[in-house]
């Protein structure tokens, strides 16, 4: 559709959510890679495969404190008739004492994690052994390989341990460290410009006068974005005036990978926003079949995605999760969405208008999902809720008692 149409038409030409997502994924700029120290890698998205540089563990080792034995020497051992095995020494941690050899009929003390001495094939836990001078009374039989972690049982040298596109966890950092990956290749954090628009907006530090409200969106968007692995860059509040708007976009473009504007969903304002985006670049979507969030704009200026989010915080937040999140996933190279969901049973009927994807804030408790209906301008349901349920566009609602999937905040 020619860009001009967006300005000419009196009504929004809404596209389905899936189409909007297709558009954003297509214009997502891929982030370059950088390396970070492994101890700072959790939360970042891996940008290249990582393999183990050595066998892990590098030697057969005990998983308990006990006595290294030949398992065949413990056959039939019990409390009444223990196996009597002279001890030939104690294995020290962090060394491979070749002098200690467990031949048939003897044993050696072995702490957890110590190297299994030559000749031994199992370890008897100290709990089932008793010292009687130099001889150890073994009171339980052990099977071949019992209580032993084999060399390379965890990871083999050269084995692919992680594939790119994975959001690294603290456990991953531990495994990366074990694999010798000190500098981890990760996707650079996207820098996201945040611009709040509206003549009625005042900064957080100001006490709102008559007709004024504090800018809640910038803080909300920035917090979510930094939690999601981006670097938010705040450009403050801009009046609903073309010149101011053009100036802030011009200064944000070279500094950011993507720009989020909020506010401007009323007809005149959105025409101005869309007009500027269209003049400097292109408007790709103006209007999405989503509620809340219909008057969203998706555009591109100087090859950077620019979003116009509706001003109401709840609407902006829904669009952030439903439409902006997929572009961030693509930019970061994330293979699996980070959305956490939980299933539950609906406590009430939820009506919905067919033809648009509707997001309803809900509370979840003990598997029961309760919608929080309220006037759309209220902020409080954003914090009283645990997440959102999505009613697909083809539905006229969801029935009480049916199963619903909740996207958790
Ligand atoms: P708009 O999209 O500009 O028409 O705004 C819709 C509603 O959201 C209006 O009530 C605005 O005052 C409010 N709003 C817009 N931007 C913000 C913001 N940054 N923080 C809080 N409320 C906002
Ligand atoms: Mg406004």
Account of the protein in words:
- By secondary structure, this protein is an alpha/beta fold.
- It has 8 helices and 28 strands.
- The protein has a 6-stranded mixed beta sheet with strand order 7-4-6-5-9-8, with no helix packed on it.
- The longest helix has 20 residues, at 313-332.
- Helix 2 (17-26) packs across helix 7.
- The protein is elongated.
- Adenosine monophosphate (AMP) binds next to loops.
- Adenosine monophosphate is lined by residues 196, 198, 200-201, 213, 215-217, 262-266, 269, 310-313, 377.
What would you say about this model in short?
The protein is α/β, with parallel strands linked by helices and 409 residues long. Helix content is 21%, strand content 30%. It has a 6-stranded mixed β-sheet with strand order 7-4-6-5-9-8, with no helix packed on it. Strands 16-13-17-21-20-18 form a 6-stranded mixed β-sheet, sandwiched between helices. A 5-stranded mixed β-barrel has the order 22-25-24-26-28.
What is the overall number of helices?
8
Distance between the termini: 35 Å
Question: How much helix is in the residues?
Answer: 10-25%
Low-confidence stretches: 1-8
Number of DSSP strand runs: 28
Major sheet: arrangement of strands: 7-4-6-5-9-8
Strand content: 25-35%
Radius of gyration: 31 Å
Structural class: alpha/beta
Shape summary: elongated
Main beta sheet strand tally, sense and closure: 6 strands, mixed
Bound molecules: adenosine monophosphate, magnesium ion
Average of the residue pLDDT scores: 95
Oligomer: single chain
């Amino acid at each position: 559709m020619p860009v001009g149409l967006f300005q000419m038409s009196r009504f929004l030409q809404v596209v389905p959510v899936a189409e909007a997502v297709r558009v954003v994924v297509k214009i997502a700029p891929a982030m370059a890679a950088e390396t970070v120290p492994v101890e700072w890698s959790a939360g970042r998205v891996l940008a290249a495969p990582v393999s183990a540089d050595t066998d892990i563990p590098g030697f057969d080792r005990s998983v308990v404190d006990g006595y290294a034995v030949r398992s065949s020497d413990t056959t039939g051992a019990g409390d009444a008739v223990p196996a009597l095995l002279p001890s030939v020494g104690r294995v020290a941690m962090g060394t491979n004492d070749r002098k200690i050899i467990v031949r048939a009929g003897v044993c050696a003390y072995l702490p957890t994690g110590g190297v299994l001495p030559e000749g031994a094939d199992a370890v008897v836990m100290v709990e089932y052994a008793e010292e009687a001078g130099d001889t150890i009374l073994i009171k339980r039989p052990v099977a071949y390989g019992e209580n032993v972690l084999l060399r390379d049982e965890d990871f083999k040298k050269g084995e692919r341990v992680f594939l790119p596109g994975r959001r690294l966890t603290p456990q991953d950092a531990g495994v990366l460290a074990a694999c010798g990956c000190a500098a981890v290749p990760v996707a650079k954090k996207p820098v996201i410009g945040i611009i709040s628009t509206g003549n009625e907006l005042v900064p957080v530090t100001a006490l709102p006068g008559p007709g004024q409200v504090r800018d809640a969106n910038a803080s909300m968007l920035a917090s979510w974005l930094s939690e999601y692995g981006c670097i938010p860059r705040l450009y403050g509040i801009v009046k609903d005036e073309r010149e101011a708007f053009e100036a802030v976009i011009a200064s944000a473009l070279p500094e950011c990978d993507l720009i989020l504007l909020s506010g401007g969903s009323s007809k005149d304002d959105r025409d101005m926003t869309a007009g500027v985006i269209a003049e400097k670049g292109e408007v790709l979507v103006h209007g999405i079949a989503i509620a809340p969030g219909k008057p969203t704009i998706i555009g591109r200026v100087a090859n950077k995605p620019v979003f116009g989010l509706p001003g109401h915080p709840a609407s902006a937040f829904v669009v952030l999760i439903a439409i902006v999140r997929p572009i961030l996933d693509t930019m970061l190279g994330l293979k699996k969405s980070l959305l956490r969901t939980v299933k539950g049973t609906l406590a009430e009927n939820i009506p919905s208008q067919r033809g648009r994807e509707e997001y309803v804030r809900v509370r979840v408790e003990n598997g029961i999902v309760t919608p929080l209906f309220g006037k759309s301008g209220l902020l409080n349901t954003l914090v009283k809720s645990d997440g959102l349920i999505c009613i697909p566009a083809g539905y006229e609602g969801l029935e009480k008692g049916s199963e619903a999937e909740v996207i958790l905040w």
